[in-house]
# Entry
Amino acid sequence: MKWLMQNVRQRAAFAAKNPGYALGAALRELTLADERFLAKITGASVEAIRGYLDEPISSPAFSRHLREAEQNFRELKIMSADLYAKKVLFPYAAVRALKPQVVVETGIANGVSSAYILLALHRNQRGTLHSVGLPDPAYLPEGKEAGWFVPKWLRKPWQVHLGDAKEILPSLLKELGRIDIFLHDSLHTYEHMLWEFEIAYPFLRLGELLFADDALWNSAFEDFARKVGTPEARILHGVGVLRKNGA
Ligand SMILES: C[S@@+](CC[C@H](N)C(=O)[O-])C[C@H]1O[C@@H](n2cnc3c(N)ncnc32)[C@H](O)[C@@H]1O
# Structure
């Protein structure tokens, strides 16, 4: 698995500091627990999910883009989502497996998650991504716009909605009617996360997925999963994933 080879030094340093967590993560890798869960909730085979997780780094154009951007991020000394982390690959694999028509995400920043989702849509040759986010300069290098990381060749099916999710999401969801995948990665407070889940869930098709980045920061994801009573909810590498009940 090529993605495992990325950031080996950072992984080793993290493992030395957090041995208990690292052991659990290693066991999950060995037993392919994350892949099995994703396979179960998407209906794809475990082998297909593993193949999807390898795709971005195996795509010459995207992998070149990642390498150039990594250099850029380092030179600009800015914080960004980990460009190669398994957690950015989960939504990618889900989009590849489910071939959704409408994906909605909140929290754009540099656009790392957007780029991965758009790559999946590009490979599927169908679907639109709606990204909602504040153009907050605190998350961006000077002179760059929200989502600047997304390469031009992936931008065609991308609709960017700049502003507060609280203002944009209600009318956007109403306008879209039904959505296939929802991803939260904006403001990670308990109240805001719960608010986004509550407003997006009724628009999600039965059997489709809701993702919540940084789901371990508080109990909003777990509380919501319990409230809607879905048996298929899990937190994988910090990312909450649940399938809408009733499928
Ligand atoms: C963790 S970053 C998103 C990272 C992004 N998904 C990526 O992969 O590059 C969170 C982003 O959410 C934005 N944000 C915070 N509160 C928000 C809100 N109420 N509505 C929309 N965006 C918000 C922040 O400005 C920031 O750009």
Q: What stands out?
A: The longest strand covers residues 204-212.
